[in-house]
């Protein structure tokens, strides 16, 4: 039973991190910590940005969950830490490698999902000072970025989700 809870904790934490990333990006990075995030929206010299400090916001809780969970043999807590860490790895691969091309690893990808992620992020950077109309998430991309325009007939749940993004 503990193994199942640990696996659920990994997947739950990973999924929850998409919401946390959206929330943090919209209300913290584009809010009171804009001074740290601003350089991400501007050309910078060198491989690092002040924005890279946000890594610690997620790395520290991940590390604490893994360490304290192992020390107390509480493996679902280890799973939460692992889910956060897996999201961090995914974030690095998607945001820094695929979107911003800090490393030239996936230059020849022609996947429509990856193209939609890049398009949504480019729109976000164009509208960097506007809260509305800008995509703040990373992995969940509104459907309009797949086709270039929003289809007229859509399910209500999808429409409501697109409004949130």
What's the number of helices? 7
Taking pLDDT < 50 over at least 5 consecutive residues as the criterion, the unreliable ranges are 149-156, 158-165
Please outline the major beta sheet: none
| Secondary structure tally: strands | 0
- Cα shape: globular
Proportion of residues in β-strands: under 5%
Structural class determined from secondary elements? mainly alpha
C-alpha Rg (nearest Å) = 17 Å
Number of individual domains: 1
Order of helices and strands: HHHHHHH
Assign a percent range to the helix content: 55-70%
Cα(first) to Cα(last) distance is 36 Å
Mean pLDDT reading: 78
What is the strand and helix layout of this fold?
Layout: H1 2-32, H2 34-37, H3 54-71, H4 75-99, H5 112-126, H6 144-147, H7 156-164
Helix pairs in contact: 1-4, 3-4
């Amino acid at each position: 039973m503990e193994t199942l809870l640990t696996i659920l904790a990994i997947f739950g934490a990973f999924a929850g991190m998409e919401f946390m990333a959206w929330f943090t990006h919209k209300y913290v990075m584009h809010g009171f910590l804009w001074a740290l995030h601003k350089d991400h929206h501007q050309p910078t010299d060198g491989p690092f940005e002040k924005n890279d400090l946000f890594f610690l916001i997620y790395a520290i809780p991940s590390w604490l969950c893994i360490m304290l969970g192992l020390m107390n043999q509480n493996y679902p807590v280890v799973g939460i830490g692992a889910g956060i860490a897996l999201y961090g790895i995914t974030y690095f691969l998607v945001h820094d490698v695929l979107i911003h091309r800090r490393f030239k690893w996936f230059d020849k990808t022609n996947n429509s999902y990856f193209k939609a992620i890049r398009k949504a992020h480019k729109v976000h950077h164009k509208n960097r000072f506007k809260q509305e109309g800008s995509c703040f998430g990373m992995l969940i991309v509104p459907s309009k970025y797949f086709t270039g325009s929003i289809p007229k007939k859509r399910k209500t749940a999808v429409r409501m989700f697109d409004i949130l993004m």
